[in-house]
């Protein structure tokens, strides 16, 4: 289930970023800076805590529906 949530979250976030860039609400360079920050953050020691939090939120949302 965790892989399914991760892939779904990545696809949703990717679509959201593309829509925000195309509508002008988000510029290209700040979006690239955020992507680079995300890749950098993923290689730190806090990444497992972030993944655990996202998994917990996804599990909680799954119980609502």
Briefly summarize what is shown.
With 65 residues, the chain is mostly helical.
Structure in words:
The protein is mainly alpha-helical and 65 residues long. It has one domain. It has helices at 2-23, 28-42, 47-64. The chain is flat and about 35 Å long. The protein starts with a helix and ends with a helix.
Can you tag this structure with a few keywords?
65 residues, mainly alpha, flat
Question: Largest sheet, described in full?
Answer: none
Rg? 14 Å
What's the helix-strand series? HHH
The low-confidence runs, each spanning 5 or more residues with pLDDT under 50, are: none
Please, how many helices?
3
- Average pLDDT rating: 84
Shape: flat
Tell me the helix content.
over 70%
Alpha-beta content class: mainly alpha
What is the tally of beta strands? Answer: 0
Gap from first CA to last CA: 16 Å
**Share of β-strand residues:** under 5%
Instruction: Please indicate the count of domains.
Output: 1
Topology readout:
Blueprint: H1 2-23, H2 28-42, H3 47-64
């Amino acid at each position: 289930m965790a892989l399914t949530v991760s892939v779904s979250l990545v696809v949703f976030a990717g679509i959201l970023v593309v829509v925000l860039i195309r509508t002008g609400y988000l510029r290209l360079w700040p979006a690239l800076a955020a992507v680079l920050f995300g890749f950098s953050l993923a290689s730190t020691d806090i990444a497992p805590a972030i993944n655990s939090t996202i998994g917990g939120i996804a599990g909680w949302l799954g119980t609502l529906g």
